[in-house]
Specification:
Blueprint (H helix, E strand, L loop, with lengths): L1 E5 L8 H15 L3 E5 L31 H5 L4 H14 L3 E4 L9 H13 L4 E5 L13 E2 L4 E2 L9 H5 L7 H17 L7 E4 L2 H7 L9 E3 L18 E6 L6 H10 L5 E6 L3 H4 L5 E3 L5 H10 L2 E4 L9 H8 L4 E4 L14 E4 L4 H13 L1 H13 L5 H13 L1
Helix pairs in contact: 3-4, 8-12
Length: 400
C-alpha cells in the first residue's frame, strides 16, 4: 500500500510530528511505501520523491497587515494544491493520511486529493488524525487565552466568536482570519471528503462530532506507545514534569505548586517560553530537554510525574510513557486526561489550575508511600496499544 502522510511540519516540532515519524517508519517496516508532504524547512527529515513542499511560513509570527495576500494564504493555498498535485501524480497513493494542515497547508490539499482521484479514476482513502480541536475551534485549544477560560462558543460552526474573543494570540486581525477560515471551509463542506477521523480521546470525538461533516466518520484510538521493559526501579524521591514549558501545559500551576512544597524536590525536564519562571526555585532542578535512556531513567525513578495541562489536552504521550514504566501520574481533570488516569487507582486527578489541590495530593503521596506503590502496581497492569496493535486498527480504516 502507498501512504502519503501530510503534516505542515516535517521536522521535529511536537507530539504530532513524533506521531507521524514513528507511524511512517512502522508502516515502512511492514512493507508499505511511505512519502510525506508538508512545508519546506531547514530541519526537515522526511519528504517525497519529487521534492515538492510548500514554502515555509509562520502564522504565529503575525499577520502582516501590509501584505494582503498573507492572510488569504492561511485560508486557501494555491501553492499547496499545486505542490501536492505533483506528489499525487508521481506517487499515486492508496491513502492520504492527514494530520495538522490548517493555516500553513490549508484544507486546499483535501480539494486537490479529491480532484486528483476523480481525474485519475482510482480509489484513494482520506484519513485524518485529529491532534487537536482545530476543525471545530479556530484556535484549536477550546480556550480563550485572554480570559484563561475554557470555551466552546465556536462549536456548531459559530466561528464569529473567535473574532469576538480575540482568541488567536489576542490579535483582532489573526482572530478574524481564524473566523473567516472556519466559515469558508464549512460553507464548502470540504471535510465531508474525509473518509475516517482518528480521535485520540473520546472527549475530542464528542467535540468533532458537532461538525456535521465529521459526525459519523470519527473513531476513538488512543495514541500508541513505545513498549518499555517492565522492571522494578528504585524510586528516586522526586516529582517529575517532562514536556514543554508553556502556559497551556500548566507550567504556571507547576511553579505555584512547587512554591507551596519547599520540602519536596521537583525535577523539570524540557524547554519552552516559560523557562525563566522556573529559575530561582530552590526545590526545582531544571535538567533541560531529555530523550532516550536519560528520560527513561528520570521517568522510572520518579515518585510520580505531573500532567497539569491548562487546556483540554487530548491524549498526552507523557501520561502513556509514565504509566508504561510503572510510574503513576497526577493530572488535570479535563480533556482526554481522565480517560487515561483512574483517580485513586493508578494515579490522581485535580481540577485545572488549582495549585493548592495539586499540592495537597503531592503532600499526601509523599506521606504515604504505600499509596504510590499501589498506583505503581496498577500502572504495571495496564496494557496500552503499542504500534503493532495500533497498526491493525489503522489498517481497517485505510482499507475502508
Amino acid at each position: 500500500m502507498r501512504v502519503l502522510i501530510v503534516n505542515k511540519f516535517l521536522h521535529p516540532n511536537g507530539g504530532s510530528e513524533t506521531y507521524i515519524f514513528k507511524l511512517g517508519a512502522y508502516l515502512a517496516s511492514r512493507g508499505h511505501e511511505v512519502q510525506y508532504f508538508g512545508m519546506e524547512h531547514a530541519g526537515r527529515i522526511v519528504g517525497n520523491r519529487v521534492e515538492a513542499y510548500v514554502s515555509d511560513m509562520d502564522f504565529h509570527g503575525g499577520v502582516r497587515a501590509s501584505t494582503f495576500i498573507y492572510p488569504l494564504k492561511t485560508i486557501y493555498s494555491a501553492e499547496a494544491r499545486r505542490k501536492i498535485r505533483r506528489v499525487l501524480e508521481d506517487f499515486q497513493p492508496d491513502v492520504v493520511h492527514l494530520n495538522n494542515f490548517n493555516y500553513q497547508l490549508t484544507p486546499s490539499v483535501i480539494l486537490e486529493v479529491v480532484a486528483w482521484r476523480n481525474r485519475a479514476r482510482r480509489p484513494c482513502r482520506i484519513v485524518y488524525t485529529a491532534h487537536d480541536a482545530q476543525l471545530v475551534c479556530p484556535n484549536h485549544l477550546l480556550k480563550n487565552p485572554n480570559t484563561n477560560a475554557l470555551c466552546e462558543k465556536c462549536l456548531g460552526g459559530r466561528y464569529i466568536n473567535c473574532a469576538r474573543g480575540r482568541c488567536i494570540h489576542g490579535s483582532v486581525a489573526r482572530s478574524v482570519v481564524g473566523s473567516v477560515e472556519g466559515y469558508y471551509w464549512r460553507a464548502r463542506r470540504t471535510y465531508r471528503h474525509i473518509d475516517a477521523v482518528i480521535c485520540p480521546s473520546a472527549f475530542l470525538k464528542g467535540k468533532l462530532d458537532t461538525n456535521r461533516d465529521l459526525n459519523g466518520r470519527t473513531a476513538v484510538m488512543h495514541n500508541f506507545i513505545d513498549k518499555a521493559a517492565r522492571r522494578e526501579s528504585e524510586i528516586g524521591n522526586y516529582v517529575l514534569y517532562f514536556g514543554r514549558y508553556s502556559e497551556e501545559k500548566g507550567v504556571n500551576t507547576l511553579v505555584e505548586t512547587a512554591r507551596r512544597l519547599p520540602d519536596i524536590p521537583f525535577v523539570f525536564a524540557g524547554s519552552g517560553p516559560l523557562e525563566d519562571r522556573i529559575e530561582g526555585l530552590e526545590n526545582v532542578r531544571n535538567v533541560g530537554f531529555r530523550t532516550g535512556d536519560e528520560l527513561d531513567r528520570l521517568i522510572r525513578e520518579a515518585t510520580v510525574t505531573l500532567c497539569p495541562s491548562d487546556y483540554h489536552d487530548n491524549c498526552p504521550f507523557s501520561i502513556l510513557e509514565s504509566q508504561e514504566r510503572g510510574t503513576p501520574v497526577v493530572g488535570a481533570r479535563l480533556g482526554g486526561i481522565p480517560e487515561l488516569i483512574d483517580d485513586g487507582v493508578n494515579g490522581r486527578l485535580f481540577e485545572r489550575g488549582d495549585s493548592e489541590a495539586l499540592a495537597d495530593i503531592l503532600r499526601d503521596l509523599w506521606a504515604h508511600p504505600e499509596k504510590v506503590e499501589a498506583y505503581r502496581a496498577a500502572c504495571r497492569r495496564l496494557n496500552r496499544d503499542g504500534l503493532p496493535q495500533y497498526y491493525e486498527k489503522l489498517m481497517k480504516l485505510y482499507e475502508g
